[in-house]
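Worked Example 4.2. Consider the chain below.
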Amino acid sequence: MIIGKGVEKGSEMTIDMFMRARERWLMPRKLRVEYEGAIYHIMNRGDRREPIFVDDEDRQLFLETLRQACGKTDWQVHAYCFDGQSFSFSG
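Applying the procedure from the previous section yields the following structure tokens:
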């Protein structure tokens, strides 16, 4: 069976291509470089753009958890936004 241009299934090249792809899926990403005093934009979106909070109490719990994390790490949140299916903040 031919895969792509002249690459046969089971050939060394196919196995090598598979192993490289597998490493990308299983290897953790490299650590991000952090700069002292920099401002970062953090965002997250629900799967299939579904709501990320069940109700207002859930949203308040998220804010309290974020407040606690900021207290432990000396982070500062300058602004945040919730739109039901995502959140975004900068700090």
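The chain has two domains: 1-30, 41-90. The chain has a mean pLDDT of 78. Compare this with Example 4.1 before moving on.
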